[in-house]
């Protein structure tokens, strides 16, 4: 426990110091990592802890992003934090509306339904140009500074300001989701993944629990979308609702490691790194990430976390064997 | 015939042709799903690959009929390779259907990108063969022959599928494996080989649809997304694994698409999804399906 607290304190210290010692480019990358990680963890809450594969999580991300953009454009004087949280609530509400349909289906049908709703939202947002700006999207709203308890003022248009805003919200969000899996409801959720029928027989309300998780996961995906909107000052259907937006966090989860909280965060980092490497060949970037995705699914189905554990086990066994044989080093 | 009736007739045949095309794609999808439990997200990519191979064969030989023969065969071969060397491997990974869905999603993305690299991003036009390019007169309505040919071709493939499924030993095994793969395997049938054949058959049908569609749709890299989405909706609404359901749903959505564009142009893209939501609200397994 003490060790865990030490690592957490060290991690927070690094996060706080980081923008002071790095340059703008890296600070902006860290903001993108925070957004990606929050989004990936929110999807992972469904995939790893509920056993539901969502192909349309961009729906919530997009609703959050569009809500933030619309709120900041049309409601003058709205506190930026309120706008972000309201956007999360908007995404959660969409989850609430869809949940009666989604909770009744499982596995493949669930994946297909989420995919279909995601595409539906894409079509809707590109058709209703008056509200969403169609293919051009929304941009150029003024981002108000954030006031903290009337004492501090953060200018969110500076790299430093947006860094603390994005990283702070992401860390809090990820911690909230982590805490949720430890609550009694979180235990029920994990049991649903392992044996839905048994949970049903035990008297828990499976469908209700699932609906709550959708809304919960949707809230944080929406929050990630809102941070994205505030950071980029631009929201478009291609940027926040495209199929690739649903696919990106899935890939982060897979590459990092399914079934853990550190996996999606690590995976988001690895993907961002990959993006930096392939930046020189933009037309090949999608191809390369697709190939890596296939290879990971085929050969490293547990991702980086799992591979590391296997490597470690293999190494420990080797050392142990060598010692037991009394020879070698 | 009054112009109004002519319009209805023309839209009706349009819808029928499009519905049959949808059925060709969706039936392969639902067949593979019913047998192997794999929802192949890359299915529409095979449709698109076939359309592109058709373009290349046409450019090289100027023969539509040769491409109708070659493109689906090439596509089926690709499908068999994917099943044999990729899908079969991830099925053992312990991630269950998640791994299959993710793998086929990855294949769909790579296939889309590979097509852009090989054939470019420009839309390509395929000409219908001269023998099918004309118009026919249906009670005073001048209707393009090619669309009637699509209906005929789809019917022929459907008939072939029915013959294979209901008149051959392979068909008996396939039908049995759709309802209980474990039992069929226990009876001593090499289900792995049957799966491979069915996967090949499914992708072959997608390939035929690709060649049939090439002259009426523009062949462009977004083709798979467009038709794939609709094929998925057809399979979901018809019920997973149900061929009959796929036929009914495909014909219905074909007409819905045709008349939707006519009467509700702004809403037509979402009509399909709205209908799907409606069906699933009352019957989560789809119209004719009994499993998820």
What would your notes on this structure say?
- The complex is a heterodimer of chains A (about 325) and B (about 290).
- With about 325 residues, chain A is mainly alpha-helical.
- Helix content of chain A is about 80%, strand content about 5%.
- Chain A has 15 helices and four strands.
- A two-stranded antiparallel ribbon of chain A has the order 1-4. A two-stranded antiparallel ribbon of chain A has the order 2-3.
- In chain A, strand 2 (about 145-150) and strand 3 form a beta hairpin.
- The model of chain A has no long low-confidence stretch (mean pLDDT about 85).
- Chain B has about 290 residues and is mainly alpha-helical.
- In chain B, about 75% of the residues lie in helices and about 5% in strands.
- Chain B is built from eleven helices and two strands, in the order ααααββααααααα.
- Chain B has helices at about 5-35, 45-60, 65-90, 95-120, 145-165, 170-180, 180-185, 190-215, 225-240, 245-265, 270-280; strands spanning about 135-140, 140-145.
- In chain B, strand 1 and strand 2 (about 140-145) form a beta hairpin.
- In chain B, helix 1 (about 5-35) runs parallel beside helix 5, helix 5 (about 145-165) packs antiparallel against helix 8 (about 190-215) and helix 10 runs antiparallel to helix 11 (about 270-280).
- Chain B is globular.
- The relative contact order of chain B is 0.20.
- At the A-B interface, helix 5, helix 12 and helix 14 of A face helix 3, helix 4, helix 9 and helix 11 of B.
């Amino acid at each position: 426990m003490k060790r865990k607290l030490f690592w957490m304190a060290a991690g927070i210290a690094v996060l706080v110091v980081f923008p002071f010692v790095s340059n703008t480019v890296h600070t902006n990358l860290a903001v993108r990592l925070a957004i990606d990680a929050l989004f990936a963890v929110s999807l992972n809450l469904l995939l790893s802890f509920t056993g539901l594969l969502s192909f349309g999580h961009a729906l919530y991300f997009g609703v959050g992003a569009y809500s933030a953009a619309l709120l900041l454009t049309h409601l003058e004087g709205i506190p930026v934090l309120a706008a972000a949280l309201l956007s999360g609530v908007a995404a959660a509400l969409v989850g609430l509306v869809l949940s009666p349909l989604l909770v009744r289906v499982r596995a493949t049908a669930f994946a297909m339904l989420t995919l279909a709703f995601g595409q539906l939202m894409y079509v809707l947002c590109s058709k209703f140009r008056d509200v969403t700006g169609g293919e051009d999207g929304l941009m150029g709203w003024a981002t108000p500074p954030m006031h903290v308890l009337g004492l501090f003022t953060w200018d969110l248009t500076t790299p430093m300001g947006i860094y603390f805003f994005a990283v702070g919200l992401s860390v809090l969000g990820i911690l909230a989701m982590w805490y949720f899996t430890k609550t009694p409801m979180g235990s029920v959720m994990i049991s649903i993944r392992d044996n839905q029928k048994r949970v049903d027989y035990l008297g828990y309300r499976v469908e209700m629990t699932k609906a709550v998780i959708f809304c919960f996961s949707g809230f944080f995906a929406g929050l990630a979308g809102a941070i994205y909107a505030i950071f980029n000052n631009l929201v478009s259907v291609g940027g926040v609702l495209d199929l690739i937006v649903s696919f990106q966090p899935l890939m982060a989860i897979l590459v990092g490691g399914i079934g853990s909280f550190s996996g999606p965060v690590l995976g988001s980092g690895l993907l961002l790194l990959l993006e930096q490497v392939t930046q020189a060949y933009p037309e090949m970037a999608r191809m390369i990430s697709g190939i890596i995705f296939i290879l990971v699914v085929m050969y490293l189905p547990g991702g980086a976390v799992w591979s590391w554990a296997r490597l470690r086990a293999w190494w420990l066994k080797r050392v142990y064997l060598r010692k037991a044989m009394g020879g070698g080093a | 015939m009054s112009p109004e009736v002519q319009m209805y007739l023309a839209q009706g045949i349009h819808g029928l042709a499009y519905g049959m095309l949808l059925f060709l794609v969706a039936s392969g999808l639902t067949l593979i799903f019913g047998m192997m439990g794999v929802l192949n997200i890359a299915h529409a990519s095979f449709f698109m690959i076939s359309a592109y191979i058709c373009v290349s064969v046409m450019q090289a030989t100027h023969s539509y009929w040769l491409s109708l023969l070659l493109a689906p065969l090439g596509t089926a071969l690709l499908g068999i390779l994917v099943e044999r060397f990729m899908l079969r491997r991830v099925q053992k990974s312990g991630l269950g259907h998640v791994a299959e869905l993710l793998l086929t999603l990855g294949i769909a993305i790579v296939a889309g990108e590979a097509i852009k690299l090989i054939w470019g991003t420009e839309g390509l036009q395929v000409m219908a063969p001269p023998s099918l390019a004309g118009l026919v007169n249906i009670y005073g309505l001048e209707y393009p022959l090619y669309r009637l040919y699509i209906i005929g071709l789809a019917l022929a493939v459907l008939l072939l599928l029915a013959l294979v499924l209901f008149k051959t030993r392979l068909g008996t095994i396939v039908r049995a494996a759709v309802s209980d793969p474990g039992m069929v395997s226990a009876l001593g049938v090499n289900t792995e080989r049957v799966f491979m054949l069915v996967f090949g058959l499914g992708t072959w049908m997608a390939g035929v649809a690709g060649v049939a569609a090439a002259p009426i749709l523009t062949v462009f890299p977004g083709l798979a997304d467009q038709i794939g989405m609709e094929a998925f909706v057809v399979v979901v609404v018809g019920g997973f694994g149900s061929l009959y359901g796929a036929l009914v749903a495909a014909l219905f959505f074909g007409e819905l698409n045709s008349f939707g564009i006519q009467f509700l142009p702004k809403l037509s893209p979402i009509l399909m999804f709205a209908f799907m939501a409606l069906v699933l609200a009352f019957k989560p397994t789809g119209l004719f399906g009994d499993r998820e």
